[in-house]
Write a structure and sequence with these properties.
It comes from Ectopseudomonas composti. This protein is α/β, with parallel strands linked by helices. The chain is built from 15 helices and 10 strands. The structure holds (2S)-2-hydroxy-2-methyl-3-oxobutanoic acid. The site of (2S)-2-hydroxy-2-methyl-3-oxobutanoic acid has 12 residues, from helix 4.
Amino acid sequence: MKLKRLFSALAAGAALTALCATAQAREYSVSTVLSDAFPWGQAAQKWADLVNERSEGRITLRVYPNAQLVAGDQTKEFSAMRSGLIDMAVGSTINWSPQVPELNLFSLPFLMKNDADLDAITQGEAGKLAFAAIEQRGIVPLAWGENGFRQLSNSAKPVRSPADMAGLKIRVVGSPLFQDTFTALGANPTQMSWADAKPALTTGAVDGQENPLSVFDVARVDQVGQKYLTLWDYMADPLVFAVNQRVWKSLPEEDRELLSQAAIDAGKWEIELSRGAQAQRLADVRERGVEVIELTDAERAAFVEATASVQDKWAPRIGDALMEAARKAVAQP
Ligand code: X2X
């Protein structure tokens, strides 16, 4: 009898402990398009690890890769986060640009030449304006990460000029600006999600695609017949660490600070990691038999000229203040 009472007291105690633990511990979903095989997924996982460590297990961020929380449709990620279906995300400016038109800034062909230009934008006035635009749409942006400068691959031939692109079917992301860029270049762009891209490359439904070197390398895009890779650095998509506004408002100030600082640290860590791996990736890709095409200044200039109309068309949708801040940033010596 005595023993039975002891047992039920213990059971009640255990239940109480569990209840306290659940009342305190919180878990949030974090959406990404790419898994932790890629720098992008590693950025999100780093954020989760730092938050877990610094909150001593009180806050768990669970990363859901492959845009699985939006059934693979990466262009719905921002809306899903805004509606609360997703708590947080580490997302590409490309995928969020249908809802935040200002983010098309980063997709403007040949606006940024290199990492220094990209950093001058994200770390300066333009970056602040881009974050303000995200905030206006009901999402709290915390930090920048990086998918990277995007390069062009195809299965047909070395591409060195817009003329080489005539008629090539190129898979592009589901953002209308890309349709304009690749049409201006004389190619035949086809919008589809990343989930559909590899099958389309495999069957030859499309001839080419564009993605950062890290994605080309990790996803082994060369193994689906993409033999030619043109390094043209035509645009870069930064990643944004962000939180649904209601979730943000529900957090005590110290947890907001913790989440925000962890995102900043994870972003910096990932940008360094990603840039630091570029040279080795390029060597690996060449080793696997990919023909890498590097452009002369004159060759690059021909692409810039062919796509100038895209900047003219999209600048008004991006907005004068942001365009001006970005142009100033890239004009710095
Ligand atoms: O779909 C793509 O090309 C990817 C993975 O780079 C993005 O999500 C923007």
